[in-house]
Amino acid sequence: MAATDDRLTLDLDGWEGPLDLLLALARGQKVDLRAISILALVEQYLGFMERARALQLELAADYLVMAAWLAYLKSALLLPRDPAVEPDPDELALRLQLRLERLDAMRDTGARLMARDRLGRDVFARGAPEGLHNVKTAAWQVGFFDLATAYGRVAARTRPVFHVVADRQVMTLEAALERLVALLGVQIHWQRIERFLPDGTDGLRRSALASSFLAALELARQGRVTLRQAEPFAPLYLKAGA
Amino acid sequence: MTSPGDAERAVEAVLFAATEPMTADAIRAHVGVDVRAPLLALAAHYAGRGVNLVCRGERWHFQTAPDLAHLLRRDREEPRRLSRAGVETLAIVAYHEPVTRAEIEAIRGVAVAKGTLDVLMEAGWVRPAGRREVPGRPLVYATTPHFLAHFGLASRRDLPGMEDLRAAGLLDPVDLALEVEKTREED
Amino acid sequence: MTSPGDAERAVEAVLFAATEPMTADAIRAHVGVDVRAPLLALAAHYAGRGVNLVCRGERWHFQTAPDLAHLLRRDREEPRRLSRAGVETLAIVAYHEPVTRAEIEAIRGVAVAKGTLDVLMEAGWVRPAGRREVPGRPLVYATTPHFLAHFGLASRRDLPGMEDLRAAGLLDPVDLALEVEKTREED
Which residue on chain B is closest to C33 by alpha carbon? Predict the structure, then answer.
């Protein structure tokens, strides 16, 4: 990109946008970018645009926008400084210069990067490595809580929220205890456990028998009732007192 | 350590970068000088090292020292978390076994990817347990003894029942809407 | 020639066999012992040879000595040439990472063509590296370990001119540089 102002080809396809063109022009000044004359650069850019227009080249919009902006910058730089004018034209010029410096730095380092000894071009890795093999076996991790939670989640998701409980009569342990204590108070002799059960359906009687048996065991533990059974599965007798 | 000569370094680099074993002539074509002496010097240099220079059928190449071949392969157990779909499927098999894939899908409410059951079988928690004698004779799945052992269960009866789950708040309907949303995203 | 120790031989074999640069930890996983000392011993052993052991971004690999490039390049295709836009974009990512697309465009003065970053990512030199927590949460880009390996850089600090650029403020955004300039003038 050693083209100078005079020899710049007018092939706009060669430039990656106005900043690229400006940088090429700036390099043409052959000075440190930090010492570059922005005014001269603006002149060059505008001159370049003039010639392009004279040749009736199609100019992309961003080049024209840059041209308009630079024309404005030029007039602002040439006019006596008016502190009321914002933004300060010197600052605009400095900003442009800083941008050029940064692009230039990246272009330069990019070239240096590309010129390094590159793997696969200048230096080479082993052509036929045997390769390393990791044989992985999965140790699956899941805990009991995860499992229970997952089932709860599935159940909650798919089971109906309302469910019908079949009409089933039950006698609770509390009720059985209460009834047993009350009845034992008026019974003096041995009585079969069935005598203590309330009347009702078969279902209720089964539940009552189970509850009453548990209640009897509890009362026996407390010494408030004595149990008697001749042999396994023989009738069970109850009597108040130890 | 004596430093290697130019020819030796060149042969070393060419053989290292070569994608196939090379004849002395082929190496010479790259290096430009006679390579017999450098090849022998290199072979001697590498003789006791982790990599050896060997000649097989007149072609030279580097290879790992035979006694170190075991280092190139490594078995490793990787802890991996079971996916959400995996845990749910496992839970359904555990609670409903023996259960067909279609039944799992019906209970989960979403399709069960083939991979999910594969993973559970690979983990040794689920096994095919015969076929159901209905049209299509679908496979049924059940848990394994290894499943019980892994989760510290004496038997499947130790799985918490619905009441336990409810008591533990695991059936909390408040979460329901959220869960459904998440499941939808996941699938 | 002193004969190498077991650990050195093992590390040598593993790195010769590896298809990718390896971290010390990855090597250790194969070799089973601490590899720092063996790595340094190997690097010293190979320093003057036709093949060198190098460390790029904490990953180690063997590669041919740079001065022998002429012997090896012969029948090899030059890797696809990167466009100027590609080179500049790569440099900007490397020197400024993590960097957004807008920041790349601000430096280059033109929009980043769709293919430019794609090409760099396809080459394995650039990767998306999260998002910047500013409005719009733009993606940021950074270089990869493969970038360091390809360009022979031990770390990003080794990028050509990195220190000079930083000292000159050329890696600072224009706005910041402007402030610095203004302060300088005022002093």
Answer: B71
Q: Do β-strands A133-141 and B73-81 pair in parallel, antiparallel, or remain unpaired?
A: parallel
Is the previous residue joined to C98 through a cis bond, with omega within 30 degrees of 0?
A: yes
Q: DSSP characters for B52-107?
A: EEEEETTEEEEEE-GGGGGGGEEEEEEEEEPPHHHHHHHHHHHHH-SEEHHHHHHH
- In tens digits, what is the pLDDT along chain A, a chain of 242 residues? 444 444 455 566 678 889 999 998 898 887 888 888 899 999 999 998 888 888 877 778 888 899 999 999 998 888 887 777 777 888 899 999 999 999 999 999 999 999 999 988 888 899 888 888 877 677 777 777 788 888 888 887 776 655 455 667 788 888 888 888 888 877 778 888 888 888 877 778 888 888 899 998 988 888 888 888 888 888 888 888 76
Chain B nearest-CA distance from A159, in A, is 9
Inter-chain CB proximity C11 and B50 less than 8 Å: yes
Rounded to 10 degrees, the C-alpha dihedral C8/C12/C15/C18 comes to -130
Whether B64 sits inside 8 A of C11 (CB atoms) is no
Give residue A68's Cα distance to chain centre.
Answer: 47
Q: Among A233, A238, A166, which residue's Cα sits nearest to residue A203? A: A166
DSSP-assigned letters across all residues of C60-127: EEEEE-GGGHHHHHTT-PPPPPPPHHHHHHHHHHHHH-SEEHHHHHHHHSSPPPHHHHHHHHHTTSEE
Residue C104, min C-alpha distance to chain B (Å): 36
Pairing type for strands A236-240 and A225-229 reads antiparallel
In 3D space, the residue among C153, C169, C25, A106 whose CA is nearest the CA of residue C143 turns out to be C153
Q: Is ipTM over 0.85? A: no
Residues 6+ positions from A235 with CB-CB distance below 8 Å: A192, A193, A194, A229
